[in-house]
Automatic annotation (TrEMBL), chain A:
Transmembrane segments: none annotated. InterPro entries: Bact_solute-bd_prot1, SBP. Residues 1-21 form the signal peptide. Pfam families: SBP_bac_1. Residues 27-57 are annotated as: Disordered. The lineage of its organism: Bacteria, Bacillati, Bacillota, Bacilli, Bacillales. Keywords: Signal. Residues 31-54 have a biased composition (Low complexity). This is Extracellular solute-binding protein. It comes from the Bacteria.
TrEMBL record, chain B:
SUPFAM superfamilies: MetI-like. It is found in: Cell membrane. It is a multi-pass membrane protein. Residues 74-280 form the ABC transmembrane type-1 domain. PROSITE patterns: ABC_TM1. The chain crosses the membrane at residues 9-31, 70-97, 109-131, 143-161, 182-207, 260-280. This is Carbohydrate ABC transporter permease. Belongs to the binding-protein-dependent transport system permease family. PANTHER family: ABC TRANSPORTER PERMEASE PROTEIN MG189-RELATED-RELATED, POLYGALACTURONAN_RHAMNOGALACTURONAN TRANSPORT SYSTEM PERMEASE PROTEIN YTCP. InterPro entries: MetI-like, MetI-like_sf. Keywords: Cell membrane, Membrane, Transmembrane, Transmembrane helix, Transport. Gene3D superfamilies: MetI-like. It comes from the Bacteria.
Length: 575, 295
């Protein structure tokens, strides 16, 4: 009897199931029907004369994006539709983007507008899935041309056509929220009487004095200098740190000489000098004992506990621990972000920037898009000063106001932003990434528009308004208004070496792996050397074994890549 | 009960201690996630959370449940799991029954085709094109139809049916039962262990599945499943913490730690499916002991 009931249950369930499936299926069909009817305006527009169409007539375009929080319907996106007649329907891809791009391409199922990286863009070009934009830009893109200026040729592909758009970097000075790579705790500076720290030796002196006086912080051992080595962190704390101290631009694990020759940084003098500094720290017991085995999480945890006095920690690494410190009201344990060099005579060229942000985030129009002129006009509007102000500052009177002729964010909007991290999405301040930290083809934080005012709300005033009182006090002692004041002006580089595709032959990969293994094995030994003689011996042995593995050929292949790129780059620019 | 010998007692202590240790080892990661999910996200960053939260907070769950699409996605996930499992078992049983009949003419052919699918499949893009061309894109049925039958489960069930005494079906036939009656009244009731096992597999498969959502229904928001919505929250938490690039850079509120969100999410997705286990446990034990026939 019970079994019978059970069976009846199963049958009933499956019946309900069928019913539910049927209903849901209908819903799905309705959804399709409505989306196809919403596309009908496009068709009707096409049949009508395209030139006489009013911009207020709305067209819905689909766009493939990565950020799933994007919505169309905030005050800014509404205004964009009002101005350009374009509404975007976001098709967010979660998970494996590359796979989805490939599937879309294979099934010709791509959205009207798509964001691709350069590798997939090439696939789409080869398949004829994206349309060339040069003539459209010529006709409808005065603002695109104005913002790109002389660099417009950089957009061109090998066949001479433009297929994608991305943002340019018009910034000449460091954005107000930029920070230098080395960090020192406020309390350490306070005890030392806020000295000027410019060299690693000076940094060494202050942390040594503080650590001697305070062997424990909050019941746990003080760590005078933090670092981590596990996985990718070796690149940051044992490679980038030395490059930063030398004032060189960040080409990853490489140093690019002015001559165009590429050298592997782990064997360079910069690394040697930096290892020497760490060796000194280690022998004085100032370097974290676990530095050689820790990873990202562990170092962040120690920083958040407030017991790491100093470190090389770029803001993207130090931001979360500092937020944790603020939340725990350990304001004294926050970090001053100071550029520190090997010696006084180092000239800093580390604040480098490329002309534009191609590579990973390029917007293209696919062959599925109807009336692409309208999309180009929409893009052109985004590049215009009016569009830049709308997408970065928002709407006058709501998100910003003019104070003494300068744009300033309104207090209510700042409050709203702080209360709800998603507010910027809801209002429409975010789009799919264009390669710039800010969105919507922004010309960058710290850049200025034709009216002489900043293009984005990252200004000294706005950055200072978000600092806590302790930070303002420390900045005051040094006579600066933001940490960005300590940075050198922006220098343009043709590219970063790590943006260029590395050699792909198998021999290269073997050498690459062997060099990495060697570096991981020997770095800790060199830094733990007991005296100078041993240090010199170990470092020389490290360089010798790197040469045995095939360092010369490795460097040559990168030099070739860099020089080839430079030649092409210069040729394109002067085309 | 017999009295224990000293050796037995020692062995038992040893075994139980070993098993308890093993149990603790498998339980610990889960407890740790549980603790992290209830801990303040900024405090979690400091590390050192083991069995209990240090600073109690519901923030992580707050972030997850503040998503207004989540309730709908949760319901849809349950509807999918329940209907998908019921239909799946039904179809699997019928398929397996047909294959277990000796008089079925195409038995070997079907068996061969079935086994073939275990080794070869259409590949991602052809499958995508198939689904697109039969108009299942952005349709709820895409969650159910492709998973209705699964060669592996059919083979398991067929073998089970075949292992039952043939007198069983014969006597049913003699008493005038048709195929459906034989299957539903005679075979399935005594096959509960295998049905329970397959139910569990299918239910977990449906519950965990998000790839078909990503692949075939990403353009239909109303068809989002729980796993997919949670994935969205996690991805944007990771994006935010990676960049901390928002204009709200320096403020504490904007910092979402992916570690804490991930922990809360794991709890959210694990608990509902965990509920299924105790219900099925019964059949694993009971099913074997049902006496069916006396020979």
């Amino acid at each position: 009897m019970r079994l019978k009931k059970g069976l009846a249950g199963i049958v009933l369930l499956s019946l309900i199931g069928f019913a539910a499936a049927g209903c849901a299926g209908n819903k799905g069909n309705e959804g399709e029907a409505s989306s196809s009817s919403s596309q009908s305006p496009t068709q009707s527009q096409e049949s009508g004369s395209a030139s006489s169409e009013a911009p207020t007539e709305k067209t819905i375009y689909t766009m493939g994006v990565e950020e799933s929080k994007l919505i169309w319907g905030g005050s800014i996106t509404k205004k964009l539709t009002e101005k350009t007649g374009v509404e975007l329907k976001y098709d967010a891809v979660l998970g494996d983007l590359f796979q989805k791009w490939d599937i879309w391409l294979a099934a010709s199922d791509y959205p009207d507008i798509i964001r691709l990286d350069n590798e997939h863009l090439q696939k789409y070009i080869d398949a004829g899935a994206v349309i060339p934009l040069d003539e459209l830009i010529d006709q409808y893109g005065p603002n695109i041309k104005a913002k790109w200026g002389d660099s417009l040729n950089l957009l061109k592909h090998d066949d001479g056509h433009i297929y994608s758009l991305y943002s340019v970097n018009a910034t000449k000075e460091a954005p107000a929220n930029a920070k230098a790579g080395f960090v020192v705790q406020y309390d350490v500076l306070k005890e030392a009487g806020f000295p000027t720290i410019k060299t690693l030796d000076q940094l060494y002196d202050v942390v040594k004095a503080y650590a001697a006086k305070h062997p424990k912080i909050d019941g746990k051992d003080t760590i005078a200098f933090g670092a981590a080595m596990n996985s990718w962190t070796i690149n940051v704390f044992f490679n980038n740190a030395g490059i930063s101290a030398a004032g060189r631009p960040d080409h990853g694990n490489f140093v690019v000489e002015d001559s165009g020759d590429v050298h592997w940084n782990p064997v360079s003098n910069y690394t040697k000098d930096y290892y020497k500094f760490m060796n000194k720290l280690f022998n004085e017991n100032l370097l974290d004992k676990e530095a050689f085995s820790m990873g990202e999480q562990e170092l962040k945890a120690k920083m958040a506990q407030g017991r790491v006095l100093a470190a090389y920690a770029p803001s993207w690494f130090s931001n979360p621990p500092e937020a944790s410190l603020r939340a725990a009201e350990l304001l004294d344990r926050q970090y001053a972000h100071i550029p520190v060099y090997f010696n006084e005579s180092v000239s800093d060229h580390s604040n480098a920037m490329t002309i534009a942000n191609g590579g990973t985030h390029e917007w293209a129009i696919t062959a599925n898009a109807k009336n692409p002129e309208k999309i180009i006009k929409f893009f052109d509007y985004l590049f215009s000063d009016e569009g830049q102000i709308l997408t970065q500052w928002g709407i006058e009177g709501v998100h910003y106001e003019l104070k003494d002729g300068k744009r300033t964010q309104t207090a209510e909007w700042v409050k709203q932003k702080l209360a709800d991290p998603d507010a910027i999405f809801k209002e429409g301040f975010r789009s799919e990434y264009t390669g710039q930290v800010t969105n919507w083809f922004s010309i960058g934080d710290g850049a200025k528009l034709a009216d002489g005012d900043f293009a984005t709300p990252i200004t000294q005033e706005s950055v200072r308004s978000e600092y806590d009182e302790k930070t303002l006090e420390v900045l005051d002692k040094y006579g600066i208004s933001t940490w960005a004041d300590l940075l050198p002006p922006v220098e343009k580089v043709p590219a970063y070496l790590w943006q260029l595709p590395p050699p792909s032959d198998s021999k290269f990969k073997v050498v690459d792996q062997k060099l990495d293994d060697l570096r991981r094995k020997t770095t800790s030994q060199i830094i733990m050397a007991k005296d100078d003689a041993e240090f010199e011996k170990l470092f020389a042995a490290f360089v010798a074994s790197a040469k045995d593995i095939g360092l010369d050929m490795y460097e040559e292949s990168f030099t070739k890549i860099w020089k080839d790129y430079l030649a092409e780059y210069n040729a394109t620019l002067s085309k | 009960m017999r009295s224990f010998k000293a050796g037995d007692a020692f062995l038992n202590t040893f075994l139980y201690a070993g098993l308890a240790l093993f149990g603790a080892m498998t339980l610990y990661p889960f407890l740790n996630l549980f603790a992290i999910s209830f801990n303040d996200p900024l405090d979690t960053l400091k590390g050192g959370i083991y069995l209990l939260p240090r600073v109690w907070s519901m923030d992580n769950y707050g972030i997850i449940f503040s998503n207004d699409r989540l309730l709908g996605a949760f319901t849809l996930s349950i509807v999918r799991t329940v209907t998908g499992t019921a239909l799946g078992i039904l179809c699997t049983a019928m398929f397996a029954y047909a294959l277990s009949l000796r008089e079925f003419v195409f038995r070997n052919l079907f068996n061969g085709v079935l086994v073939l699918t275990l080794y070869v499949n259409g590949g991602l893009i052809p499958t995508y094109l198939l689904i697109k061309n039969i108009h299942l894109m952005n349709n709820f049925l895409v969650y159910l139809l492709p998973l209705l039958v699964n060669a592996f489960f059919i083979i398991i069930m067929r073998s089970y049916f075949e292992s039952l005494p043939s007198g069983l079906t014969e006597s049913a036939k003699m008493d005038g039962a048709g195929h459906f009656q034989t299957l539903f009244r005679i075979l399935l009731p005594i096959s509960l262990p295998v049905v329970a096992t397959i139910t569990l597999f299918v239910a977990v498969m449906h519950w965990n599945s998000w790839f078909d959502n990503y692949l075939y229904a990403s353009r239909a928001n109303h068809l989002s499943l729980l796993q997919y919505e949670l994935m969205k929250i996690l991805m944007s938490a990771m994006n935010q913490s990676a960049g901390s690039q928002a204009h709200v850079g320096e403020s504490t509120v904007s910092v979402v730690t992916p570690q804490a969100i991930r922990a809360a999410m794991t709890i959210v997705v694990t608990v509902p499916i965990l509920v299924v286990y105790p219900f099925l446990q019964k059949y694993f034990i009971q099913g074997m002991t049902v006496g069916a026939i006396k020979e």
